[in-house]
Amino acid sequence: MELWRDKIRKIEPYVPGEQPEGKDIIKLNTNESPYPPSPMVKKAIEEYNCENLRLYPSFVCKGLKAVLMDTYNVSQDEIFLGNGSDEVLALSFMTFFNSDRAVLFPDITYSFYDVWCSLYSIPYRRIPLDNSFRIVKEDYFGENGGVVIANPNAPTGIYMGLESIEEIIENNRDCIVIIDEAYIDFGGRSAAELIHKYDNFVVVQTYSKSRALAGIRVGYAMADKKLIEAMETVKNSFNSYTLNSLSQIIAEASAKDREYFNKCCGNIISTRKWTVDRLSELGFDTLPSSANFIFTTNKSIDAKTLFEYLREQNIIVRYFNKPRIDQYLRITIGTREQMEKLIEALRRY
Fold it and tell me: Could you tell me if 214 and 208 are in contact, meaning their C-beta atoms sit under 8 angstroms apart?
């Protein structure tokens, strides 16, 4: 008998988007950037001294933090760096959610939130979005053990204004409020400015989407220095060297190239509008998106059937077989050429 089986932690893990192989595939399922990283990234890699890989990386990350300090008007001790926003969020959950009260987040949102709660034995409660898939701020005013909101939300792409976020923070001064801004650069205003006003507020961002650097896994949090200190303590109890040296250099180079960053974000925003307009002509209803993806449905077409048809055309989008959203497809915004091929495939269907 394998008696040890009863002692293994059992949990339903997060399921990431498919990573198909093949040059002819149009991959619109994981919200990656359709554009390459900044040319300054290529230069930084070419100039990197590989001999430095024998050394442990800097745990201070001074160069990268300096760029973030300048970008967001924050101090060095108000920044926390980690391996992608997933690790930063996971460590945030571990650090801040330790009461017997339930952590609150939307019923339709990033599905890693309930996984972390289950992993760390954190009680939680999903708050239903309204019939328009919007967050109802008043639903987060009651007693709780913390609040987590993706803004813009995923997979809907809907953005909530800073006024509503601030009201949620104001009504939760006895717990930590986390805003996950993975998609903020595609149409929203960052709430980072509020960290100087509220000492119970954390903003999390990533280099994976708007910086086209999903492959290096760099994310960060911004918050009051006491909260950052608490996160550092938890991180250093797990792994003091979270960011490898090459990732630090690449991320720093990318952050310095604001012109290229703005150009790529602008291209995605304009292509998003073009795509939504063409989908509307084909009878699709698309939620208002401030992200680098759209969430769309057609009442005349079964979403799963359409998902499978597009797959046969070598176009991969994301389908969620979940209540309330099982007739929607989430489609990453690619290049204009890629989206034209998508629209043509839909016209043929």
Answer: yes
Query: Burial, 118: exposed, middle or buried (Cβ in 10 Å; 0-12, 13-18, 19+)?
Result: middle
- Sequential DSSP letters for 1-42: --GGGGGS-------PPP----TT-EE-SS---SSPPPHHHH
For residues 79 and 69, give the distance between their C-alpha atoms in angstroms, rounded to a whole number.
8
Dihedral of the alpha carbons of 244, 246, 250, 253, in degrees to the nearest 10: 110
| Class of the CATH domain delimited by 39-256 | alpha beta
CA 196 to chain centre: 23
- C-beta atoms surrounding 173 within 10 Å: 11
Quote the pLDDT of residue 1. 58
Structure tokens at 335: 């290049």
Domain boundaries, the chain: 23-36+259-348, 39-256
Domain 23-36+259-348, CATH class in plain words: alpha beta
pLDDT under 70 in the chain at which residues?
A: 1
Compute the distance between CA of residue 78 and CA of residue 224 in angstroms, rounded to an integer: 6
Nearest to 29 by CA among 317, 304, 309, 345: 317
Per DSSP, helices labelled H in 179-326 are 225-236, 245-256, 258-281, 303-312
